[in-house]
Amino acid sequence: MSDPVLVFATFRPAPGREEALLATLEPMLEHSRREPGNEFFDLYSSEGGQPSFHLFERYSNRDAVEAHRASSYYRTYRSKLPALLASPVEVVVLTPKDVL
After folding, report:
1. Residue 3 — very low, low, confident or very high, per pLDDT cuts 50/70/90?
2. C or N terminus of the chain, fewer CB within 10 Å?
3. Which whole-number Å values give the CA distances from 63 to 16, 66, 71, in the listed order?
4. How far apart are CA 96 and CA 98, in angstroms?
């Protein structure tokens, strides 16, 4: 059995594109939360400073992450991002080392 995989993605909207970015991210919540192997898929926003959104995702294994990335809704959402962002999405993939 493989280890769970966590993904932390940061989105920095282009000026005036915050609402459009949020509208693009929100459908991903519903779709992704229903995927086999998805344990959570949560969206956060930053407080103060430059606006940003953060997705915190956990999958049961690497195969579940790959299935997520292969989905049609994921590919569609990713194709919309360049027009909405001030900079590329920052993605950090984490594997557990010492967790309870």
Report:
1. confident
2. C
3. 36, 5, 13
4. 6
Distance CA 25, CA 68 (A): 14
Alpha helices by DSSP H, listed for 1-100, are 18-33, 62-70, 72-80
Mean pLDDT along residues 39-43: 96
Q: Which fold has domain 5-94?
A: Alpha-Beta Plaits (3.30.70)
- 3-class SS of residue 55: strand
Domain boundaries, the chain: 5-94
The answer to whether 55 and 42 are in contact (CB under 8 A) is yes
Show the tokens assigned to 34: 């229903």
This prediction's pTM? 0.89
Dihedral sign, Cα of residue 7, residue 72, residue 29, residue 31 = negative
d(CA 77, CA 24): 7
